[in-house]
Amino acid sequence: MSHDTDLVQADRGQDAISIHLVARDGFENWVKKFSAGQRAALAAQKFTGGGYEVGIVPDGDAWFAVGGVADPAKLSSWCMAKLAESLPAGTYRLAGGEPGPALHGWQLAQYRFDRYRKDDEATGPRVLLTGEARAIEPALAEARAVCLVRDLVNTPAEDMGPAALEAECEALAKTHGAKLSVTKGDALEQGFPMVHAVGRAAARHHAPRLMHLTWGKEGDPVLALVGKGVCFDSGGLDVKNAAGMLLMKKDMGGAAHAIALAGLVMGASLPVRLHLIVPAVENAISANSFRPGDVLRSRKGLTVEIGNTDAEGRLILGDALALASEHGPDLVIDFATLTGAARVALGPDYPALMTRRDETAAALIAAGKAHDDEPWRLPLPEAYVEWLKSEVADTNNAHANAFAGASVAGLFLDKFVGEGIDWAHFDTFAWRPAAKPGRPKGGEAYGLRAAFHMLRQRYGNR
């Protein structure tokens, strides 16, 4: 996405190329209004009004664009994304209506991760005009938040270690006038012992730490956002195989979501007392790695037997959730690339959602459906808590059978959230394995817009 040009701008009657949308069902009647030459041009491009089809139609000395959508009267976030990917650089206007939700996909279709190489296919910005002036800033903010998640997840671990996540939190605090405290070293070992244990084997320049950003008025409802920041996951001594390790730069995707969501909350001036908590580690292998069978103490005081060192994300989240619970939160939301089981159940596109309260799940799902970012609820079954029993500690961090891995991980986290607190947990993939219009292969935000729009509805603006 261009960082130099706002890809959505106010329509003040400036020159722009028209875009016409049509569905396949109505195409035959719709195309009759064009000249024989224009119909021939569309036929030559094999344009039939199918979803994501793009056509260019000559119009005297000029031209206009056509796009196929499911329903021109009910646009989605992604229905114009293929147009934004395919059309030449320029300024465009939707004929006969406003783009509405399609503003989102229009921008994200122009995202490029070009930190390490020049994109030879980039053609310059495609700007979309809208007469809905109040929609512009929110649309820009949401697209930039998604791009931030993509950028952070796409960046390799050597350049996106715990120190780099700290720098992101510092930049966020500076932008919004928030306060940031960072705990590391001996203080981390004392205050957040599971974060320290997981991260202690990493090289010094990737040393573990915990970031705690606060913003907003004292007395406003406390909103805690927690993100899993495992910047690379080797699996620890229970080491992953090569295929399992290949994408583990994305294991800080939960932290990326939480950071981006915190930025949206502050940018929208939601009337909350915000706590952003990001534990950041590399789960490395060294002589001082934590081991299978070790018993770790936690910030909450619970002892945890290590059944598997590759179930490390829940450990650092346990300490972070305990900290979040200490501030009397009205709501806690955490994001984590936590389990492969969630992906087996739901695939990449649906983040698994677990909540203590039905009404919180319903609000998140409704907001997700309304903004093309739907989560799917999984249970937190009390019957499975016994699978985490340990003979030597208060709990194990992993269960021995292969059942319900996402829910059992959620049940582990539940132990560290204070009693009675409204809590939602997103087990998100943070990665798109294959491209779709507006959504390139690579780092991706899932559940971010669902959470933000739920928060806007719950708390409103100042």
TrEMBL record:
It holds the Pfam family Peptidase_M17_N_1. One of its GO terms (molecular function) is manganese ion binding. The keyword Cell membrane does not apply. It comes from the Bacteria. The keyword Hydrolase applies. It comes from Pelagerythrobacter rhizovicinus. This is Leucyl aminopeptidase family protein. One of its GO terms (biological process) is proteolysis. Belongs to the peptidase M17 family.
